[in-house]
Amino acid sequence: MNILLTNDDGIHASGLRAIYNELVKLGHNVFPFAPTVERSGASNSVSLNVPLTTQDVYDGDFKGTAINGTPVDCVKVGLAKLHENPPDLIISGINAGHNVGTDILYSGTVAAAMEGCVAGIPSIAFSRPREEVDPTQSYAEHAANLLKKIDFSLVPKGQILNINYPSISIKKTLGIKVCAMSTQGWEHKLHKKKDDNGKPYWFISPYIPYSHGISQTDVFFLLEGWITITPLMFNMTAQTTLSNLEQHSFT
User: Fold this and answer.
1) Among the listed residues 227, 6, 9, 4, the one whose alpha carbon sits nearest the alpha carbon of residue 130
2) pTM
3) Residue 164 assigned to a binding site
4) Which Pfam families would you find in this protein's record?
C-alpha cells in the first residue's frame, strides 16, 4: 500500500520513526509528512493565510517531509504533493500518550486521521501510553501487523479507527476490544503565574481525574488492560435531537 504517515509529536518523534520502519519492512510505500515541532493539542486547527514551508528530512533510511504547520496542515500538504499517486491509507501516530474520551476533541493525532477520512481515504490513529512500558518499536511492530487484520470494508467512508494501547506490556494485554468513546477524559487546570518581569500569565496543565472509566467505553477498557479500537466519524449531527426538533414547532 501507499501510506501517508503523520503525527502531532513532530517529524523527529520516536513513534513516527518506529512505525515508519515497520511499515517499510512489510513492503509498504510510506510517505511521512509531519510537523517540524510538536503540535499536541492542535486538534483540527489549520494555518489560514500564512506561508507553510516544507523541508526534506533524511536520517539513515528515513525520508520524510517536515512542515511548519499543524497536523491537519501536514495531511493537506501531503495529499497535495501526492495527488498523482494518492495514498491508500493514512496513519497518524504512534502518539506518545493516550487519545481516548474527551481527549479526542483536542488531539492533533486523531484530527490528522480525521482529515484523511474527510478526503475519502481510510485513516487510523495510533496512540501508546506516555510512559514507555514497552520499547516504542514493540508498539510499532504490533500496530503494523494489526493492519493486516483490519477489514476496511467494515469502516464506511467518513469514519476512522482510533486505536490505543494500555499502560501495560503488550504481552500482558487482555486482547483487543472494539468499544465506544467515553465522555471522560483529561481535565485542564489553569494556573495564574507571573513572568520574570512580574507580568501575569495563565498556564494550562492537564491531569486525569478518573480512576476508572464509564463502563463499556474506551477509557474503561484501556484501564482494564485492553487494546481499544473505537470507530469515529466527522459527521457530528445529533440524529435523535434532529428528529425531535423536526417535530417541534418554532412558530
Assistant:
1) 9
2) 0.93
3) no
4) SurE (PF01975)
